[in-house]
Design a protein that fits this description.
Length: about 475
């Protein structure tokens, strides 16, 4: 145990955000530097519980009490080793995961949880600064080849694990840069893209090959890919966005979030101004339909582009400030959250439903809303509460329903289940010999921590398939397992 009284004597403290008036002028990450001594004090709040429920809260099974103790003692190198033992990309999860581990923290039963995410990020940054992160190429190659389709966190984790045990791995990505939604879905102010690039250098040094601007199923037949490789892993994500088929949906000025968000990232990557893109919120009255993280990403992006006003809509009621009785510890509670984007501006409206879009000359000019209430499990409109909000631009951030119904799936003869995801068994295998699926394509829209966990797990399954023996890679989690904490 680190500091026996740390959770009592030290208050929870996380990295401070740069002031709104400063950060809204740029696209850099919103956080300031945090003193190492303060991070060590936060790590000292960990109780080293007899039963560390944070392990069960984390799909990766991160060894949280171990690396908290090492940080408190100042042993950053060993802390990095323990962190990377279960997580290929702790800087991704530390910056972007909603931290189900913190919701399951024993300290959180009666006080503020240990700042696990904050410590995780700092361990990773110290590891990079001090040269603890090094390529781990295999001693010998197996002669087996694997194609991975999709370069998000699931695909990259699978690629790294398989390369490290000696298989020759090629990652195919239809975009012009590697990273999947990490690259073109997550705004720069949440994670700058050099964070991805330095990991890609490590993977390249370990032997992973990257093939960008290749749309498997279009630019190359998926069956040809299967003939060329000993195994194929589908990590193509859940990118089929959910639409809103209400009257007026055809008006110009209504966009899906993923039609909008990638443009700013692409502009920054190309050295262009993210304000002067094809779809820009500059001087526009913006409405965002969807109250989740993607909606908040649209909010932060629109504010930086100079939107005249932004309103974010959510069909659910406003969440409680504290954990509700029906979401007891250690489950992940749905509580009211203020992201960095919400600090920066905009208005939030809850318990409202879109009735129709209003428009003139083929362009959206507003949106008609009605208040709703939940009755017997169904949303019912409240009569007489209809209002119309002005809008020059509307973004739909309603989540995703599964992988796109692409030529690739047809060429491989794969089918989707009733949830819209690729059918697979508990070992991540599809009905086609040698074809596996992991991440959101098989699980459905989920968390980055689950994507990495599935990437690691499918790698072990594929390694066992290729070698015909038990894999030295970490034992897979069952593909049938569903998130319990979120």
């Amino acid at each position: 145990m680190a500091d026996p009284k740390g959770f009592i004597t030290t208050a929870r403290e996380t990295t401070k955000r740069r002031s709104v008036d400063v950060r809204i002028q740029d696209w850099r990450e919103v956080y300031e530097e945090h003193p190492l001594a303060a991070t060590q004090s936060q790590a000292g709040r960990c109780m080293d519980c007899g039963i560390p429920f944070c392990h069960s809260g984390c799909p990766l099974g991160n060894l949280i009490p171990e690396w908290n103790d090492l940080v408190w003692r100042g042993d950053w190198e060993q802390a990095s080793e323990r962190l990377h033992a279960t997580n290929n990309f702790p800087e991704f999860t530390g910056k972007l995961c909603p931290a189900p581990c913190e919701a399951a923290c024993v300290v959180a039963i009666s006080m503020d949880a240990v700042a696990i995410k904050h410590v995780e990020v700092e361990i990773s940054e110290q590891a990079w600064r001090n040269g603890y992160v090094k390529p781990m190429p295999p001693e010998r190659l197996t002669g087996k080849t694997v194609a991975i389709i999709g370069s998000g966190p699931a695909g990259l984790a699978a690629a790294q694990q398989l390369a490290r045990v000696g298989h020759t791995v090629a990652v195919y990505e239809r975009a012009d840069r590697i990273g999947g939604l990490l690259r073109y879905g997550i705004p720069e102010f949440k994670m700058e893209k050099w964070v991805i690039d330095r990991r890609l250098e490590q993977l390249t040094a370990e032997g992973v090959k990257f093939r960008t601007s290749v749309d498997v199923g279009v630019d190359i037949d998926a069956k040809d890919l299967l003939r060329r490789y000993d195994a194929v892993v589908l990590a193509n994500g859940s990118t089929q966005w959910r639409d809103l088929p209400v009257p007026g949906r055809e008006f110009a000025g209504i966009y899906q979030a993923m039609q909008y968000l990638p443009l700013a990232n692409k502009a920054l990557a190309d050295g262009a101004d993210p304000v002067d893109v094809e779809i820009t919120a500059k001087d526009k009255k913006v409405i965002i339909i969807g109250g989740g993280d993607t909606g908040a990403d649209c909010l932060g992006t629109a504010l930086r582009q100079g939107a005249s006003s932004v309103v974010q809509l959510e069909i659910m009621p406003k969440p409680p400030m504290a954990r509700a009785d029906y979401q007891p510890w250690p489950t992940f509670p749905m509580t009211y959250k203020i992201t960095s984007a919400h600090e920066e501006g905009g208005e939030r409206m809850y318990a409202v439903s879109t009735q129709r879009f209003v428009g003139e000359d083929g362009k959206v000019t507003g949106i008609e809303l009605v208040e709703i209430e939940l009755k017997e499990g169904k949303f019912e409109p409240v009569s007489g509460t209809e209002i119309v909000l002005e809008a020059d631009m509307v973004f739909l951030a309603l989540g995703f329903t599964g992988p796109e119904k692409s030529p690739m799936l047809e060429q491989l003869g794969l089918e989707l289940n009733e949830r819209g995801t690729v059918i697979r068994d508990d070992s991540y295998a599809t009905k086609v010999d040698g074809v596996y699926v992991c991440g959101d394509a098989g699980r459905g829209q989920s968390l980055i921590v689950w994507a990495i966990a599935e990437g690691r797990s499918v790698a072990a399954a594929v390694d066992a398939y290729l070698t015909g023996s038990a894999s030295p890679l970490p034992k897979p989690i069952l593909a049938s397992a569903r998130p319990m904490m979120v």
